[in-house]
Amino acid sequence: MLSERQRMILSAIVDDYIRSAEPVGSRSISKRSDVSFSPATIRNDMADLEELGLLEQPHTSAGRIPSIKGYRYYVDHLIQLGGVKEQDVRRLRGLVAEKMNHWEGAVSHAATIVSQLTNYTSIVLGPDSFHTSLKHFQLLPLTDTTAVAIVVANTGHVEHRTITLPEGVGMDDMRRIAGLLNEKLTGVPFYKVKTVLYTEVANELRSYIDHCEHILSLLEDTLKEETEPKVFLSGATNILTQPEFKDVDKVKGILDVLEETPRLMQLFQSLSEGIQVRIGTENGVEAINQCSLVTATISADGQLLGTIGILGPTRMEYGKVIGLLDYLSGDLTRLYNRLYK
Amino acid sequence: MLSERQRMILSAIVDDYIRSAEPVGSRSISKRSDVSFSPATIRNDMADLEELGLLEQPHTSAGRIPSIKGYRYYVDHLIQLGGVKEQDVRRLRGLVAEKMNHWEGAVSHAATIVSQLTNYTSIVLGPDSFHTSLKHFQLLPLTDTTAVAIVVANTGHVEHRTITLPEGVGMDDMRRIAGLLNEKLTGVPFYKVKTVLYTEVANELRSYIDHCEHILSLLEDTLKEETEPKVFLSGATNILTQPEFKDVDKVKGILDVLEETPRLMQLFQSLSEGIQVRIGTENGVEAINQCSLVTATISADGQLLGTIGILGPTRMEYGKVIGLLDYLSGDLTRLYNRLYK
DNA sequence: ATTAGCACTCATGATCGTTGAGTGCTAACG
DNA sequence: CGTTAGCACTCAACGATCATGAGTGCTAAT
């Protein structure tokens, strides 16, 4: 549909605009060493590209900037994936050595590094616990009336919660409850826990404890928290260095989304496997219509172990970011297999 | 040193400026219903107050704004503590019911509410583990070569870490190590753990395990992480609504400090008990010279259980903030005593 | 000691040309 | 027919100039 020259021009405009954040004129393209057309020719093509909705003009006497559709075409057809630099590889390798004994730590640390390498914001979603299962459950007495409930998932993730016991539940009861729960719940996927809790566990519990409803609801609460994936953020303020966000009001909306976990997770809904790019309004969240989000899922054996997202302006270095995330997701998958399999 | 009228004028200027964020002129003070002096009289006093370093003039033909010294005088001598509103009390009470089974959760949730009530940023430091002691230690096997180490403090706080075991350490060894650690370390304050680990524990461990140095250093790492207090943030973007921070560059520096935990903790160094106010440069951190920090410690039985800080512009509603923190610290102390004592 | 009067200062905002980057169109060119 | 030189046109950005008015400091009267 597009001529070879038009594709070349679109690519040049996107590249230039990503670098400079300023509208690109026909003359500056014509001056590139790999271009041998006059500004006038390029202007004609630019007019065509604008008619196709791939370019926009901020005002009559300015150059062109890519539209969302233009970025989309660029990402789908024209992009050149950036290789990962030698020094960046070394940097990312470092995390393997440093945080290898803490899966979530490794993932979030990786995200921190990526946010530093790219100067964008990185967002990490912890394991989707829908697919993880319970490895161990324990009640630890703290005082006469309180205990710490500790839940260990098979990913090595640990969640804890202090609970206040109802009157009349002693140390022995506690130990028996913990034993029972371990027996019944070990290996059970999280999404089934509630069911098991209220059928098998409840029956047995009722036989030797009175107020077991209260205890059950406490346990359910404890386990529910585990179901919600954890979110890590890094480099949130990087957005402030982008020239298009030098206006505080625009930035406020974005940072607000980043601060509220539920709204943040909305961004990650209905993502499919692998690397995905969502440009501007494609995100479907009003406040970040001026941003793009590149996401990569990390998984092993069909189990989703985490999602890393990079949020930047629509004028984002897509090639570099995609290259980095591609490398990283492979590396983390390898790390996981070595550690937990 | 200051005349009654001068104190009144200073107080009026600070109040007005806190509300409007604009330099206060003599005429606007004279118009207040509780003032019966002409603008000229007030101007004379204002000149005196400026000479004393309590007021400043942005430029010759503008009104006055308080200097840091001026705010200091205001906070020390003139402030009227704001009572806590009925609805705010109800809001804060809610957290007692909601999060009562999770100490750190309760504290950080309280901070979230305060940041919403005040429209400033709230920063929470978890318990200073220098004074907390070890309640329980446990090793939980995960795979053949990995295990989860779980540390429980007497505040009910739980820390965990996945560690990779050296070759040749089996399930039995693990159980024995955990037993030994529990025996030797229970009740030991964190700042003594390292010593005990390398004397008592090391001796016994050496008798039946070979590579115990490796294990010991792993354990030390695990426990070290616990020593660093946790930091929670809420309402970081509130600073963006302040008119004096409508310039992105000023804000960037502040948000950068908030994002980096170590720099953030620097702010909380050398705080004494109770409520403290640090105005502008008194904070000693370059990037937040335009901000004030009000902190309140929460403690019971001489044990420091947490610190809540409110960060806002120097033009902060000191009375309201101090009132809130005062109420809150009392409330949280009561909550703690009921739960863990 | 207080206040009215007045000259003076200076940030703010509006108006108005100037500049220059960039365009679209037309006509000439190979 | 595709490409290009030439040219008139547009318009954001910038700087200079000026009027406005809020607020001051000083002096002299009360």
Properties at a glance:
about 350 residues; Beta-Lactamase; Enolase-like, domain 1; alpha+beta; three-stranded antiparallel beta sheet; Arc Repressor Mutant, subunit A; homodimer; about 50% helix; DNA-binding; 3 domains
- What would CATH call the class of the largest domain in chain A? Alpha Beta
**Largest interface, C-beta closer than 8 angstroms, per-chain residues:** A-B, 40 and 40 residues
Q: Give the strand order of the largest sheet of chain A, numbering strands 1, 2, ... along the chain.
A: 7-3-10-9-8
CATH topology of the largest domain in chain A: Beta-Lactamase
* Total count of strands of chain A: 10
**Class computed from helices, strands and strand pairing of chain A:** alpha+beta
CATH architecture of the largest domain in chain A: 2-Layer Sandwich
Give the CATH superfamily of the largest domain in chain A.
GAF domain
Q: What is the succession of H and E elements of chain A?
A: HHHEEHHHEEEEHHHEHHEEEH
Total tally of structural domains of chain A: 3
Biggest sheet architecture of chain A: 5 strands, antiparallel
Overall morphology of chain A: elongated
Poorly predicted spans of chain A: none
Percentage of residues assigned to helices of chain A: 40-55%
The average pLDDT value of chain A, as a whole number, equals 86
Number of helices, counting only DSSP H or I runs of 4 residues or more of chain A? 12
Alpha-carbon distance between the termini of chain A? 49 Å
What is the multimeric organization of the chains shown?
homodimer
Radius of gyration of chain A, CA atoms, in whole angstroms: 26 Å
Our estimate of the beta-strand percent of chain A is 15-25%
